[in-house]
Write a structure and sequence with these properties.
This protein is an alpha/beta fold. Among the domains are: 134 residues; 105 residues, MutS, DNA mismatch repair protein, Chain A, domain 3 (Orthogonal Bundle); 194 residues, P-loop containing nucleotide triphosphate hydrolases (Rossmann fold, 3-Layer(aba) Sandwich); 78 residues, SH3 type barrels (Roll). The chain has 28 helices and 21 strands. The strands form six sheets. Strands 12-13-14-10-15-16 form a six-stranded mixed β-sheet, sandwiched between helices. Helix 6 packs antiparallel against helix 8 and helix 20 packs parallel to helix 22. The longest helix is centred in the first third of the chain and has 34 residues. The radius of gyration is 40 Å and the shape is elongated. 36% of the residues are buried. About 20% of the residues have low confidence.
Length: 745
């Protein structure tokens, strides 16, 4: 998906909401790597585990998540020759102890949350390592019993310290009148007495320091020099022995490093799940159902980042249409509706619960493309219109049946007539490709087009004309007014200006047939002059004209039947059609019939169900191109090479790796898994695995003619990336490395 579309839908803000709720460095990294998924099975699994975690928290269960303080540095240094300190081993012991608590806690919740609890089953208790550390270190200090030698050295140290202390106490009493303070202090790790400078010669020893004022000198007495040297030697031995203890513990930790890494990854995943669940609780989110046909239904949906309490949105796209045109006033919530659909779809595909009522359904799309906002840029010399066109160009480059397209304010930023024509052409092209489209507009021509064209539907944002307040409610099935005059009055435009604006609008409507509201549009269509808005829409949708059409118009006398007859006999350009309609004097009813008559026949016959490219008119043998469509179907039925098929023979037994032809798709595939009890095969088609009944495939090439006997079929069915991962896993444990494979049922 394009990053610009994700930015317009504030997807990064949703990811940051999850990141901010993590408490471990590894959990944070997992949250930062969140991205939309495209496999419905994987998405469903992610949603299920997040919902289980949310339910656990909602019921008051407190998950004992281990702290990973200090673990990042420790795991990075183990195995490099570095010997951790006593404090680091203390934190490691706490981590191992907490992992055991988490494992036991999740085991007790297996019935309530089976998926979430299963992650803890892979964790290791590591009781041996914990016992080693606890036997050697307590509260950040190495114990005497960590080794026999260390115990012996420390006993001698205590004896030497006691002997030295007695000697110093005696010297304090002996030289009391010569001392500045009757205390023993240290300088450079040596015990000294604070002697008055004038009595320096009265105390035998070495001056190690002097006070800032120079009135006191710090003397190491000669009587204690030998004892202090012995004490220093014992302390050096103690340090060497402590290092030996830490080195032994380091070896134990390095042996357990693979198990520690698995524990750390499990803790990170629990932290990640808890962060997703906490945000879901904060915004009142629930798991949606998933669809694979581009349809969706959001019930009482709310945008998660609206500051005020939002009015819930009900919006849907069913199999009857693939394009929804949302109309209504400015400030009425049209753009918010687009952003809500886009962001909630992205959240669901990321495995995040969405703020919508139970029973909501979300489609799974390969791409979600958005053109929202004017995108003006002085630095890049982009006007509003050129920015829209640039976005639309990028969208058209990738749009297909697995794309959700969100277009805000169609036909803005340029001449309205040309903008309307260009917008309708873009909508038609997106419809032809089967993309799911949500668009907003103020133009009546586009509203009327959506009313008449199969596969399109209008919706409007409700507006209270009495209170002059938007209701932020989406009413499906009807186009709405823009309420320009009402809103202008609300914001203080004078009544004289409003009255003059209405007068000008009426003049424009009468002179050019272009209405400024839905009501004016209807008046233009119903008028007997025959030059209303629906006429121009009929003209712009025309695909045929010429001499025969002009004859039909001239003979029509206002009859829509004669006009349609002219269209059906026509094979020329749209210009002649416009000439014919301009000379027509038909009624509004016959004109609407004429508009329907000049829409492409296959569009009217097919409707939204033919968004994938099926043409019902051709299938029934109606309209131009029926013969070609029939021939294409015969060629498809004949097989990949267009050869005539012979009467069906007995289907040979199929095997893994066999190449088969799927007539319903017009494509070849390779058998990945043999038929189950229902006769369903899994066939790999262009890298994607699909479930197809064995009766719907025909054997073309047996695998024995393609591969040696002991050929590794993973080369055919698995990605290069997965094979590399598997090879790496066979050699050693790699943190964060995992393989996800489809498992079609």
């Amino acid at each position: 998906m394009r990053s610009s579309s994700l930015d317009k839908l504030e997807y990064a803000r949703a990811i940051e909401a999850v990141v901010s709720r993590t408490s471990t460095y590894m959990g944070r990294r997992l949250a930062e790597r969140l991205a939309p998924l495209h496999d419905a099975r994987v998405i469903a699994a992610r949603l299920a585990e997040t919902e289980e975690t949310r339910t656990m928290i909602d019921k008051g269960m407190h998950v004992p998540l281990p702290s990973m303080e200090g673990m990042e540095d420790l795991f990075a240094l183990l195995g490099t020759g570095y010997v951790p300190s006593e404090q680091q081993f203390g934190m490691l012991a706490q981590f191992v102890r907490s992992c055991g608590q988490l494992r036991r806690f999740m085991a007790s919740k297996a019935a309530a949350a089976p998926t979430v609890a299963a992650y803890a089953s892979s964790m290791h208790e590591l009781d041996g390592l914990l016992a080693e550390i606890e036997g050697c270190i307590d509260r950040g200090r190495i114990l005497d019993g960590a080794s026999q030698e260390l115990g012996r050295i420390r006993r001698k140290l205590r004896q030497a310290e006691e002997k030295l202390q007695k000697r110093l106490d005696g010297l304090l009493s002996k030289h009391a009148e010569h001392l500045q303070d009757r205390i023993v202090s240290t300088r450079g790790g040596r015990y000294v007495l604070s002697v008055k400078k004038e009595h320096r010669r009265k105390v035998s020893g070495t001056v190690l320091d002097e006070s800032a004022s120079g009135q006191t000198v710090f003397v190491e007495p000669s009587e204690t020099a030998g004892l202090q040297m012995e004490l220093s030697a014992l302390r050096a031995e103690e340090q060497r022995e402590e290092l030996q203890v830490l080195a032994r513990l380091t070896g134990e930790a390095e042996l357990a490093l693979p198990q520690l890494s698995v524990n750390a990854e499990s803790v990170a995943h629990y932290d990640f799940l808890l962060a997703k669940a906490k945000w879901a609780l904060a915004i009142g989110a629930l798991p949606p159902e998933l669809t694979d046909d581009g349809t969706f239904e959001l019930r009482k949906a709310r945008h998660p980042f609206l500051s005020a309490k939002p009015v819930p949105l009900d919006i849907a796209m069913d199999a009857g249409y693939r394009s929804l045109l949302i109309t209504g006033p400015n400030t009425g919530g049209k753009t918010v509706a687009l952003k809500t659909v886009g962001l909630l779809t992205l959240m669901a595909q990321t495995g995040l619960l969405i703020p919508a009522a139970a029973g909501s359904r979300v489609g799974v799309f390969r791409a979600i493309e958005a053109d929202i906002g004017d995108g003006q840029s002085l630095d890049r010399s982009l006007s509003t219109f050129s920015s829209h066109i640039r976005n639309v160009t990028d969208i058209l480059a990738v749009a297909d049946r697995s794309t959700l397209v969100l277009l805000d304010e169609l036909a803005t930023g340029t001449d309205p007539g040309e903008g309307v024509g260009l917008s309708i052409a873009v909508l038609e092209e997106l419809y032809r490709r089967g993309a799911a489209v949500l668009a907003t507009t103020h133009f009546n021509e586009i509203k009327e087009y959506a009313r008449l064209a199969p596969g399109f539907r209008n919706a409007r944002m409700a507006f209270d004309e009495d209170t002059l307040q938007p209701l932020y409610r989406l009413d499906m099935g009807e186009a709405g007014d823009s309420y320009a005059f009402v809103i202008a009055r609300k914001f203080g435009i004078g009544e004289e200006i409003i009255a003059r604006a209405k007068e000008i609008a009426r003049g424009l409507k009468g002179g050019a047939g272009r209405g400024v509201s839905a009501e004016a549009q209807r008046e233009g269509v119903e008028s007997s002059s025959g030059c209303g808005e629906a006429q121009r829409e009929g003209v712009e949708r025309s695909s045929g004209s010429g001499e025969a059409l002009r004859d039909g118009v001239e003979r029509s006398g206002g009859s829509g039947e004669a006009l349609r007859e002219g269209v059906e006999r026509s094979g020329g350009s749209g210009e002649a059609l416009r000439e014919g309609v301009e000379r027509s004097s038909g009624s509004g009813h016959s004109l609407r019939e004429a508009v329907k008559g000049i829409l492409p026949a296959e569009r009217i016959e097919a409707g939204a169900s033919n968004a994938a490219g099926e043409v019902t008119a051709a299938r029934k043998g109606k309209g131009p191109g029926a013969g070609e469509a029939g021939r294409e179907r015969k060629e498809l039925a004949a097989g990949a090479n267009g050869e005539r098929q012979e009467p069906a023979a007995v289907q040979p037994e199929l095997g893994v790796g066999d190449v088969v032809w799927i007539p319903s798709l017009g494509q070849r595939g390779v058998i990945y898994r043999l038929a189950d009890e229902r006769g369903n095969l899994i066939v790999q088609i262009r890298g994607a695995k699909q479930l197809i009944n064995h009766k719907r495939v025909k054997l073309q090439i047996e695998s024995k003619h393609l591969y040696p006997e002991d050929y590794d079929m993973d080369i055919v069915f698995d990605t290069v990336d997965n094979r590399k991962k598997r090879s790496l896993m066979a050699k050693r444990h790699v943190e964060g490395l995992k393989i996800e494979r489809e498992d079609l049922e």
